[in-house]
Amino acid sequence: MKDFFNKLLTGMSLGIVVCLIPNALVGEILKLMIQHFTSIQAPLQTILNVSVLAMSLLPVVIGVMVGIQFKLTPIQMCSVGLATMVGSGVVSFGEAGMTMAGIGVVINIGLTAGMAVLFVQFLGNKLKDYTLLAMPALSLFIPGIIGMILLPYVKTGADYVGLGIATLTDLQPIVMGMLIAMIFSILIISPISTIGVATVIMLSGISAGAANLGVCASGVGMAIASYRANNLGTSLAHVASAKIQMRNFFMKPKIAAPTILTAAILGALAGVFKITGDPYSAGFGLAGFVGPLKYLSIEHWSPNSIILSLVLFIILPIVLNLVFIKLFERKMKWISPQDYKVTYE
Q1: 163 assigned to some structural domain
Q2: Residue 53: which residues within 8 A CB-CB, separation 6 or more?
Q3: CB of 44 within 8 A of CB of 79?
Q4: Can you point out the beta strands (E) in 243-305?
Q5: Is residue 164 part of a domain?
Q6: What is the C-alpha separation between 44 and 53, in angstroms, rounded?
Q7: What domain count does the chain have?
Q8: I want to staple 116 with a disulfide (CB 3.0 to 4.6 A). Which of 8, 143, 171, 314 is the partner?
């Protein structure tokens, strides 16, 4: 059972990154460019539309990625992808026809993908010569439609969780900002996808901003701490994804102490200065500058927001991590540069 969920979550995480990264990298920049470069507005809008389309293909890609994790055959993988799309909530049917929008309900996408995997594994070779004809159809009509039936209930539950977190954050923005940032600073160096968690519970507002700052604190901190043990390229890669330190973190959890404390301070400041985000940007941090760009987009690039983003997403993470790394390394002797050594063997 543990292996099953591990493969399912891994496939979901990969699918989320593949489909959301393109829009996360260029979406906000393109929106800004479209407003100011009217002569090339049409091609820029086309690129933006294509990146949005990639987001709506998330259920299919997750289904295929999950199938790869389970080493399914091509027909089985595609069948899982089709079933997952049906149960995702991306597609809706009405009098005007079929509409495709958004990324769907991620937790229901995972549930449908899991059911579809079990279904195609159960079928195995039972269909024999009719596998190509029958397996995709049966996957659509059984696990796919079950996922569609579950969708409104799962969506309601996920919405309540997100609403609960948002309400608590509004009531206690500093305390909740601290907690969320600390949690996400740990999640980013664990097997769990920060992007997946943020989209599943629909993290938004200050909660999303604090999550981004937590991820940022971890990425910048791990880059600084690992510099003397690794080459420059490896160190800088931590800014995009601190998951590089996953193995070292599980071997020596104390290596995360400086970044967790940095995240706590940044999260509290997110509550003080109302640093916000949305479910599709939370969890990226500085990867593609998604966190600060989304915040700037929400605040309409005001002078104050530009200064705040530079300070909170870049300057303070560097300064605070340097202070805490020095404290834990030289004063308390808790950590050493070799604790952050990344090996590729």
Answers
A1: no
A2: none
A3: no
A4: none
A5: no
A6: 14
A7: 2
A8: 143
Shared-domain flag, residues 71 and 23: yes
Task: Evaluate whether 259 touches 218 at the Cβ level (below 8 Å).
Answer: yes
CB 279 within 8 A of CB 203: yes
Residue 312 has a pLDDT of 94
- pTM of the shown model: 0.71
In the block, tokens 């933006």 appear at 48
Last residue of a domain, one of 103, 124, 154: 154
Residues 193, 283 contacting (CB under 8 angstroms): yes
Q: How far apart are CA 302 and CA 289, in angstroms?
A: 17
| Boundary (domain end) residue, out of 98, 119, 154 | 154
Which residue range(s) make up the domain with 244?
A: 172-340
Q: Which residues contact 30 (CB under 8 A, 6 or more apart)?
A: 44, 45, 47, 48, 51
Do residues 57 and 19 make contact, with C-beta atoms less than 8 angstroms apart? yes
Regarding whether 141 and 63 lie in a shared domain, the answer is yes
* Max Cα distance, the chain (Å): 70
Percentage of the chain beyond pLDDT 70 is: 97
Residues 242 and 134 in one domain: no
Cα angle 174, 304, 323 (rounded to 5 degrees) comes to 55
| 248-289 pLDDT tens trace | 888 888 989 999 999 999 999 999 999 998 887 888 888 778
185 and 114 assigned to the same domain? no
Do residue 188 and residue 330 come from a single domain? Answer: yes
- In total, the chain counts a number of residues equal to 345
Q: Are residues 196 and 109 in the same domain?
A: no
Residue 232 backbone dihedrals phi, psi, to 5 degrees? -60, -40
Are residues 115 and 177 located together in one domain of the fold?
Answer: no
Tens of pLDDT, residue by residue over 49-103, are 998 898 889 899 999 999 999 999 999 999 999 999 999 888 888 777 888 887 8
Its sign, for the CA torsion 106, 107, 109, 113, is: positive
- Examine the domain organization and report whether 54 and 93 are in the same domain: yes
**Backbone dihedral angles phi then psi of residue 99, each to the nearest 5 degrees:** -125, 135
Give the separation between CA 323 and CA 212, rounded to whole angstroms. Answer: 21
End-to-end CA distance of the chain: 28
